[in-house]
Amino acid sequence: MSKHVVILGAGYAGLRALHELQRGNEELRITLVDQNEYHFEATDIHEVAAGIQTSERITYPIKDVVKKECTTFIQGTVEKIDSDKQLVFLKDHEAISYDYLIVALGYESESFGIPGVEEFSLKMVDIPTSEKVHQHLVAQMKAYKETKDENYLKIVVCGAGFTGIELLGSLVEGKKKLAEIADVAPEKIQLYCVEAVTRLLPMFSEKLGGYGINHLKKWGVQFLVGKPIKEIKQDTVVYLDNQETNALAELNAKTIIWTTGVSGSHVVGASGFAAKRGRVMVQPDLTDPEHKNVYIIGDCSAVMDQESQRPYPTTAQISLKMGEHAGKNIKAQLKGQPTKAFTFKSLGSVASIGNSHAFGEVGKVEVKGYPASVIKKAIMDRSLFETGGIKEMLAKGRFDFYH
Ligand code: NAD
């Protein structure tokens, strides 16, 4: 009887694992589960939110990468895993049993329990939430045209991490189109970023981080740094303005976008895995400490970097590598061979600010400006290639020789 591998999540990690498992000659049955019928390029959703990219260009059908001979795709929402009974429970679907499980359920927006975040700010974590941000922006521009209330032209991005910075870059680029809807000059649209700490983008040198931030400032973004957000109210961001006196201040805006960090899927904690903010500190071979047949990979997983003695940051790049590694380890287990420890050497990280500017590090080399943006596209096109294949890349026009 062939073994059954169940993969939960068709993001970078899950699809890369599927690709690896489908490549083998092993006698295997695979079931892939995702709530959507499409995979989306999570690294590009800020472009959809800002209206400079359509969601169609960053999504592709999961069925295109599923080999029907060995894999079944179920579109469904995972509610819970019972790792002792080896069962996965889905909403409106019978439970699925497994021999091996790969949990690759990705990330969720993290509110840190700050009041009002859920009610009064917009998330940007997937295709529907990113499209919602864009629709909201368009509605505010139309409302400005009617009312001339300048609050409709104000946009606040909460948090200046990678996500916030890339979103600001895309919003700068999207301003022109939005301004046309509002019938104003693009400079009239005001972009703010409120950030808790003063040392931005700590993964980069101060000089390199400063390069990106200074570009955004030059393009009109106003940064309020060292100002932790304490509450979100209707059309209002409340932040700590003075750490000594504890004085609060308010910033009014009709668009407030929440990008202060992410946690792993809530399903992980709800299923009894030992998770902190939805992430499980996995074994070196990427299995759950309690279950040798359960792999936890991607943003639900924390893997210790033996060099720095800190968990690796969650990125698309490491998710792809974990997917491949989990697939290989399951194949080894099926042959009765030992699993291998995961190792990771980052190709580098690059943050794009708009379509033709970026900054980051590739190896030990700092890259900036237009060349950096070409490198960023090359890294992402490679990820599309690794999960979707050449057909998807060409079909999307992503292999952009003329960039
Ligand atoms: P993050 O944790 O990297 O950044 C969040 C930012 O919000 C931090 O600067 C933090 O100080 C700030 N913040 C937190 N609470 C706040 C508060 N109450 N008030 C004001 N500011 C607050 O999160 P992210 O940017 O969502 O990124 C998540 C992960 O994804 C990271 O590991 C990141 O490296 C990765 N990522 C990588 C890329 C890329 O490689 N190009 C792009 C996007 C995200």
**How large is the radius of gyration?**
22 Å
**Strand order, largest beta sheet:** 5-2-1-9-22-21
What small molecules are bound in this structure? nicotinamide-adenine-dinucleotide
- What structural class is derived from the secondary structure elements? alpha/beta
Number of strands: 28
Tell me the distance between the termini.
51 Å
What proportion strand? 25-35%
Largest sheet: 6 strands, mixed
Mean pLDDT: 92
Secondary structure: helix percent: 25-40%
Low-confidence stretches: 397-403
Explain what you see.
With 403 residues, this protein is α/β, with parallel strands linked by helices. Helices cover 32% and strands 29% of the residues. It is built from 10 helices and 28 strands. It has helices at residues 12-23, 45-50, 117-120, 127-147, 162-182, 206-218, 266-270, 316-334, 369-388, 390-395, and strands at 3-8, 28-34, 38-40, 59-61, 71-75, 78-82, 87-90, 93-97, 100-103, 107-109, 154-158, 190-195, 222-225, 229-233, 236-242, 247-252, 255-258, 262-264, 275-276, 279-281, 287-288, 291-296, 301-302, 304-305, 310-311, 348-352, 358-362, 365-368. It has a 6-stranded mixed beta sheet with strand order 5-2-1-9-22-21, covered by helices on one side. The chain has a 4-stranded parallel beta sheet with strand order 13-12-11-17, with helices on one face. Helix 1 packs across helix 9 (369-388) and helix 4 packs parallel to helix 5. It is globular, with a radius of gyration of 22 Å. The structure holds nicotinamide-adenine-dinucleotide. The site of nicotinamide-adenine-dinucleotide (NAD) has 26 residues, from helix 5, strand 12 and strand 26. Nicotinamide-adenine-dinucleotide (NAD) is lined by residues 43, 112, 114, 158-164, 166, 194-197, 228-229, 259-262, 313-315, 349, 351.
